[in-house]
Amino acid sequence: MDPSVLAWALAQPAGSRAAALAAAYTGGTTRVSFEGRTVEYRSLDELGRALAMLRGAENSAARRPSVTLARFSRERTG
To answer: What domain of life does the native source organism fall in (predicted)?
Structure first.
């Protein structure tokens, strides 16, 4: 697992899905409970991929489109 993904997940508020996944991953278990639900992952690798997807979704939602304007002229000055 990418250490930056795990660090991000551990920094999330307690009780969030990412924090629950990170706690399970660091504890070596594949059963995760959050928001009254329990999910069993097939492996720690699958759990790590779920964490990476959560982080990717959050990062893409946080990005805003950027706009660049350019202006050209054929007129000569001087």
So the answer is: Bacteria
For helices 17-27 and 3-10, what crossing angle results, to 10°? 120
Question: Is 22 in contact with 15 (CB distance < 8 Å)?
Answer: no
Give which of 44, 23, 48, 43 is closest to 33, Cα–Cα. 23
The per-residue pLDDT for range 22-55, each reduced to its tens digit, is: 999 999 999 998 888 899 999 999 999 999 999 9
Q: CB atoms < 10 A from the CB of 75, how many? A: 4
Q: Which two tokens stand for residue 76?
A: 């000569």
For 7, 66, 69, 75, the CA distances from 72, given in Å and listed in that order, are 46, 20, 10, 9
Domain-by-domain residue ranges, the chain? 3-62
